[in-house]
Amino acid sequence: MKKTIAFLLLLGYCITNKENIQNIQKRTRVFHQVWNTLFYAQARIRIKRKGSMKMSEYFSVSDIFGENVFNDAVMQERLPKKTYKKLKEVIEAGKELDLETADVVAHEMKEWAIEKGATHYTHWFQPLTGVTAEKHDSFITAPMPNGKVLMSFSGKELIKGEPDASSFPSGGLRATFEARGYTAWDCTSPAFVRQDAAGATLCIPTAFCSYTGEALDQKTPLLRSMEAINDQALRLIKLFGNTTSKKVTPSVGPEQEYFLVDREKYLKRKDLIFTGRTLFGAMPPKGQEMDDHYFGAIRERIAAYMKDVNKELWKLGVSAKTQHNEVAPAQHELAPIYAEANIAVDHNQLVMETLKKVAGRHGLQCLLHEKPFAGVNGSGKHNNWSITTDDGINLLDPGKTPHENVQFLLVLTCILKAVDIHADLLRESAADVGNDHRLGANEAPPAIISIYLGDQLEDVLTQLISTGEATHSLSSEKLETGVKTLPDFMKDAADRNRTSPFAFTGNKFEFRMVGSQDSIAQPNVVLNTIVAEAFSEVCDILEKADDFDLAVHDLIKKYATEHQRIVFNGNGYSDEWVEEAGKRGLPNIKSMVDAIPSLTTEKAVSLFEKFGVFTRAELESRAEIEYETYAKEINIEAKAMIDIAGKQIIPAVIKYTTKLAESANLVKSVCDADISVQTELLKEVSDLLAETKAALANLTAVNNKGGAMEEGREQAVYYRDEVRAAMLALRAPVDKLEMLVDKDIWPMPSYGDLIFEV
Ligand code: ADP
Ligand code: MG
User: Which CATH architecture group holds 226-614?
Assistant: First the structure.
């Protein structure tokens, strides 16, 4: 209030003095800066008086949120009106960007970034390596005759970059001698300044394509799929009489799980360093059986870390919202507020980078691997997904009486159909090497795709299928706790089901299969495209229908009936479900290697080509890259095991056996007492040592054979079946040895040290 009055006074002063618009803008900027500094100082004094926090730790969220983002507010403030308007048209209506506009934007972006301390800019992109890539260029131009340099950044440099494409995975899309690749500015995701040890860098989110325009990254197909669902969803809602919405976008909110371990201990584990997961390790006496970590009070050290992570993310405009401890000891979760799919994907990359970067400052190491510890819950990512119009209508909102909401029922049954027909593709989109330890292995969620709808919607669907008419919706009930002083409130109309891989949760679907370190781009590409296909098919029918209402009714009933097999509300972790799903004919694809072929089926090719999301060549290249990635990652794991077993474990065990033998000899010579413990242990340990040596030799031979094979499916299958088996055969005796050998001699921290002593 005070601020508004002061601002109006300032405005009044400017108007009375007939100041021009640039002057007023400048004064406004200075006014905000001064006011915020004063406010900040005042708050610091108040906090210091109370003594509740160190002054240096104080910050105001609303002040820092988005401070390092070239967002709409900054653009509006800094760009000339005409340029701003043109850029908005490009962003919102997908119009072409002209070089003149780009030049003005680039100049302002550079000035803004330099004010934030930036010396370099980078085209920030997501090649198919699983991590983001960047090449930094400084803003400086060639020195002038007086020896000084200017800082420049042109529109051309903003919109186009030329990294060497031959060094990134292309899956045969290009030969290595054809090096040209382009990064293209994605103006729908705002540029940001990242501050780290390298100083400050202006990061420009970009798409990455080959010389011939084929997508070599995650972003390009994502943007294409967003266009597909936009086109088809607009067609659909128009049929229902919507004339106001101009754009439909998928909204995505990913919940990110991660582990934190002590960095000193991490550095003593070569397996974690090289592969992100432990390759050896006996179970500690306590695991997660007490369920005492989930939502438990957050420890000081972790809380300080989370605070720092949030601060960094808020500066980057990432709306980190919730944080809590997860099921496993040392496991945690962070969820942002949902955003447009494209921004959500970029933000999730920033979340992962930030989680890792900030951990170092707290003497911690963040593990994003899906399964860092065998026998302990792994990490995933819940991809919450809905479809929203630009005027705020969520197409997945059922309202209070879903049975009357015909548009919702049609959208819902389209999704049932899409997921049923393309279950294999959805499963594939969550496949990565680490996730094989979760999906279809001994951990949930299962590898079988099914949909949880909850009682209310399932009941509506049952009515539709049995009588062709849904006449009522189960309503929500009051929650009764039996305690008078607790407030009464209405429960949700449906309970939750944590075991479902694809669950309806009120006004969105939650796809829970995604791996914790994987990009969420691919699952969203698949979701957007398969739903676009279902929408397009109903539109084809409805646009020609004589009786619209009847046609809609028939379609809902038809889809609900034909695809009801995909709906499952029971326990997805049970063996009965596996059997039942088999009877229903639902695919149960247990490994990444088995999932990859679904990328190149005729069904997939015609789906993706129809909506211009992938060409056949792009799909084939992606399948090839995935086979290569699989073999390479397992090969690295095998080599890490060979290294650790040969150089650390066997020498340590020999040291221990020597100690045992010496002890036995000593006892014998001094007092001839009972040395049965030493001899029994020596025998047991020596036998396991021999087993270890043999398993090591076998793994070396098996892995060498794999390395000599030609890259492709056959090699990946070999790594999955032969190399992994040989790895397990080596791990078994080593884990037994860990339980016998003197802890002081064992060469690395144990599971207990890692997950209970953070
Ligand atoms: P839950 O407890 O259902 O998992 P949360 O409210 O914690 O729900 O939300 C989980 C994630 O889902 C958050 O990132 C949230 O922003 C996101 N989310 C909420 N509503 C939607 C929606 N309509 N579309 C997409 N994501 C959503
Ligand atoms: Mg959730």
Answer: 2-Layer Sandwich (3.30)
394 ligand 1 Cβ < 6 A: yes
State the Cα–Cα distance between residues 341 and 5, nearest whole angstrom.
Answer: 39
Residue 185's nearest CA partner among 252, 90, 108, 66 is: 90
- Greatest Cα-to-Cα distance within the chain, rounded to the nearest angstrom: 107
- Kindly give the number of the ligand 1 atom that is closest to the alpha carbon of 253: 14
Residue 656: both structure tokens together? 């221990």
**361-419 residue pLDDT tens:** 999 999 999 999 998 889 999 999 999 999 999 999 998 888 889 999 999 999 999 99
523 CA distance to ligand 2 centroid (A)? 16
Please, are residues 559 and 459 in contact by the beta-carbon 8 Å criterion?
no
383 membership: H or E segment, kind and range = strand 381-389
DSSP for 244-270? S---EEEEEEEEEEEEEEEHHHHTT-H
Q: Which two tokens stand for residue 729?
A: 């055969």
Whether residue 680 is predicted with pLDDT greater than 90 in this model: the reply is: yes
- Please determine, for residue 709, whether its predicted confidence score (pLDDT) is greater than 70: yes
**Strand pairing category for 509-511 and 502-504:** antiparallel
Rounded Cα gap, residues 222 and 611, in angstroms: 12
Element (H, E) at 435: none
Residues with CB under 5 A from ligand 2 (ion): 382
Ligand 1: atom nearest CA of 506 is: 3
Give the CA dihedral 395, 399, 401, 402, nearest 10 degrees.
20
CA 246 to CA 254: how far, in whole Å? 26
Residue 39: pLDDT above 70?
A: no
In this model, does residue 593 exceed pLDDT 60? yes
Number of residues in the chain: 758
- Domain range annotation of the chain: 2-58, 72-217, 226-614, 627-756
Q: Class of 72-217 per CATH?
A: alpha beta
Other CB atoms closer than 10 Å to residue 111's CB: what's the count? 12
Task: Note whether 332 and 325 are within 8 A (CB).
Answer: yes
| Per-chain mean pLDDT for the chain | 90
Range from 435-449, 487-501, 590-604 that averages highest in pLDDT:
590-604
pTM passes above 0.85: yes
322-335 pLDDT tens trace: 888 877 788 999 99
Q: Identify whether the C-beta of residue 755 lies closer than 8 Å to the C-beta of residue 261.
A: yes
Q: Which CATH class is domain 627-756?
A: mainly alpha
382 CA → ligand 2 middle, Å:
6
CA 258 to ligand 2 center in whole angstroms:
15
Ligand at shortest distance from the CA of 253? 1
pLDDT band at 57 (very low <50, low <70, confident <90, very high): low
